[in-house]
Amino acid sequence: MILWSTICCLLWNAAAALAQTSADPAPTAPRQQSPTTARETARARPAQSGDPAAAAERLRQFRELEGDLTVTDPIRAASIASMRASQLYSTPQGPLEVVVRRDPSGEPLTLMLLDRGGEVLGMATGVQGRVNLMEVISAVQSLQCAAWLQLVEGDEPIGPPIVVQPIWEPAPVRTTRALRPDQTTGFTKIIGWGDRPLDPDDPAITELRKTWIAGDPPAISGFKLYADMDVLVRTDHGEILVALSPDEAPNTVWNFRTLVRDGFYDRGGFHRVVPADREGRPFVIQGGDPTLTGNGGPGFALALEPSALAHDYGVISMARGDEPHSAGSQFFFALSRDGTARLDGQYCAFGYAVSGSRSIDSIAATPIAVIEEGRPTEIPKILKMQLVLSPARLPGVDRRDFRIKPAAMAGQAPASAR
Are residues 258 and 311 in the same domain? Predict the structure, then answer.
């Protein structure tokens, strides 16, 4: 049963490959050149094949075996249970529907709503046909950020999850002018969102907070339902697989997915490589500019989102200019926590690499022609970016635990995260 489930999960991944204004992270900072959910208590979790550690190990095995297994029974594979979103958008009142197809010979189906860390927010058993999530999982209506809907047959997850994203109107960004570490160059510093300061213990921010004009109260405009996707970055230095974080930055994730899907990044490159900042700490590699000059973008600006995803090694984030809402297509991968921690809250991190550390390190080691600009002697090429279906979500498993680690820490990471 476990072997067959492994094959089915791999088949989903293998068969489903689909078809900034510029910004410029500098050693001082990336810049541009020109409710708590109201969680319901789950009645019971489906029977699990072992504890969360065992589930994590099983997920690792799925990833390791990819490409090594051959599906010999396509008829059975084609008849497996499945789930799809009825439509992309719905109103706040719904209906919020998925269509569930059951294999007549299979076990009863369950829908599980999971948060990022694998906590079960709600579930519905015995589902099939057209299902209104608002009627069967009450926690959906109180979501404050995106969650993942996973189809389960018996005790086995089936196929990729669907992202359930509430559409909230953004809070106003709060800024002030500040000096960079060189104490000569000024920049616009993000200090809060809405009525929430980034650092409530900073007395200067506390004083500025008194001048903030209250924005409109948060309002939900509806929901989005879509298949969870990873992004495979194919470069001439190897591949990087990126898991996205719609729970932290839903609009940034959607923008990135759309540009990837439509081929915007294909035949581009990493026009800027900063292997170390002024203190010698690994910094960033940056791409996403079709002109390869640092001045190009998609022709529109993207609003900054208040992502709390930390800029650790392998995290992908949007580069932008001094104006907060000036990102577009340019992105960067962080090369170290020490070098990029100061970017937290100032730039929108929206995903993390789950494989490809050797490729990232190889790009970072590219010889540099112009140190001040991070201009590589030979620009590392992006051959193609493509969307691939993400693996199933498992209760008790946080996918961020499978992020890549720097080479010095690779022994502490799952084998799939190196």
Answer: yes
Residues 28/251/416/392 CA torsion (nearest 10 deg): 170
pLDDT reported for residue 82: 94
Is residue 107's pLDDT more than 60?
yes
Q: Is the pTM of this model over 0.90?
A: no
Tokens encoding 118: 């694998």
**Residues in contact with 372: Cβ distance below 8 Å, sequence separation at least 6, in sequence order:** none
Taken in order 238, 231, 25, 117, is the CA torsion positive or negative?
negative
Q: How many domains does the chain have?
A: 3
Q: Would you say the C-alpha torsion 363, 368, 369, 372 has a positive or negative sign?
A: positive
In a domain, 403, yes or no: no
Q: How confident is the model at residue 181 (pLDDT cuts 50, 70, 90)?
A: confident
Does 345 lie in the same domain as 374? yes
Token pair belonging to 150: 């996973």
With CA atoms as reference, report the closest residue to 337 among 364, 315, 307.
Answer: 315
**pLDDT tens-digit readout, 204-233:** 999 999 999 987 888 899 999 999 999 999
Q: What is the pLDDT of residue 29?
A: 56
Residue whose C-alpha is closest to residue 315's, from 282, 353, 288? 353
Instruction: Please tell me whether residues 296 and 338 are part of one structural domain.
Output: yes
Burial classification of residue 134, based on how many CB atoms lie within 10 Å of its CB (0-12 exposed, 13-18 middle, 19 or more buried): middle
Q: What is the pLDDT of residues 11-46, one digit of tens each?
A: 344 434 333 334 455 555 555 543 333 333 333 333
Domain that holds residue 27: 11-34+229-389
State the amino acid at position 413 in one-letter form.
A
- Residue (of 269, 392, 403, 243) closest to 329 by Cα position: 269
304 and 379 share one domain = yes
Residue at 189 is within a domain: yes
Task: Please determine, for residue 71, whether its predicted confidence score (pLDDT) is greater than 90.
Answer: no
Instruction: Return the H-helix or E-strand segment holding 78.
Output: helix 74-78
Could you tell me if 305 and 381 lie in one domain? yes
Q: What is the CATH number of the domain that holds 99?
A: 2.60.40
Q: Are residues 385 and 246 in the same domain?
A: yes
Tokens (6 digits) for 63: 């990833």
358-367 confidence digits (pLDDT tens): 999 999 999 9
Task: In whole angstroms, give the CA distance from residue 119 to residue 219.
Answer: 25
**DSSP structure class, residue 191:** E
Q: What is residue 186's DSSP assignment?
A: E
